[in-house]
Amino acid sequence: MKVSPISKIDDCQIPISERIWENLLDEARLMCVREPGLEQFLEIAILGAGSFRKALKTQIGVRFSGLTLPREQLDELVEETYECEPNLIQAAASDLAAYKSRNAAFSSYLAPFLYFRGYQALQAQRVSNYLWRSGRHGMAIHVYDRICQMSGTDIHPAVTFGTGIFIDHAIGLVIGETAVVEDNVSLLHNVTLGATGNDRGDRHPKVRRGAIIGAGATILGNIEVGNDARVGAGSVVLQTVLPHATVVGIPARTVSRLKVSNIAPRGGNADDFDWAI
Question: How large is the average pLDDT for residues 72-88?
Fold first, then answer.
């Protein structure tokens, strides 16, 4: 039996997906009052779905189905994925919580769930990753191709993600096959987690818990970006970044490093983040 790489999300007795689902319903009802013209759309997307899982499947299907990947076929793949690995539903809810807490522009669950290509691309990638780990590489690449076309991202199906992931804007995000992105990581647009071109096998970066990667940063090779580290916008990183360090420049150099005792838990609100670094 295959085991999901995503473990227990949190210790609350009520699943995070159920907690967030209630918030999504409340926000959708309020939006219907404020914008009656969206009522039919919201009924299909949220209010009539019945559960977070079904609404999420609908969003993936609407966003990524097409002539080469019909809606019915994609729905079946998503359903199989969630049936075999239900923790992925909790991971999607955890990601949505990250969007609400870290996005200064939209402090809601509804906007990223319905509209943000980074959030939707990540959830579709989790489906392609399930297929890849199940040995169905052909179908995984087929789904991956649709994600690339519709989201402007290029994330290999083999990439492993933790939970609480925040991908802001998403355009131009490239993540190579053997990369790992752990819990509570934040990635901006035009970030590359790539290889140097001179290596084979395990050749891509490992981004550890709570790290922030600024817009346009390029990180190359089988190196680590440590826990709670920050990579400045436009930086080119060719060497391991120590935990809690901030690096900037081309090539990137360390400009500061916090002591562990001074570090607040990652995953806070938007005021905790300085994307310019």
Answer: 98
Check for a shared fold between 13-152 and 159-277. Answer: no
CA geometry: angle 190, 177, 52, nearest 5 deg = 75
Topology of 159-277 in CATH?
UDP N-Acetylglucosamine Acyltransferase; domain 1 (2.160.10)
State the Cα–Cα distance between residues 24 and 102, nearest whole angstrom. 17
CATH number (1.10.3130.10, 1.10.3470.10, 1.10.3720.10, 2.130.10.10) of 13-152 reads 1.10.3130.10
d(CA 46, CA 50): 8
Beta bridge partners of 193: 175, 219
- Determine the Cα–Cα distance for residues 186 and 200; give it in Å rounded to an integer: 27
Query: In the chain, where are the structural domains located?
Result: 13-152, 159-277
Q: Which tens digits make up the pLDDT trace of 98-125?
A: 999 999 888 899 999 999 999 999 999 9
* Cβ proximity of 215 and 227 under 8 Å: no
What tens digit of pLDDT does each residue of 214-265 get? 999 999 999 999 999 999 999 999 999 999 999 999 999 999 877 654 544 5
* Of 58, 110, 49, the residue nearest 79 (C-alpha): 58
User: What pLDDT score was predicted for residue 277?
Assistant: 55
SS3 at position 79: helix
Q: What predicted TM-score, i.e. pTM, was given to this entire model? A: 0.89
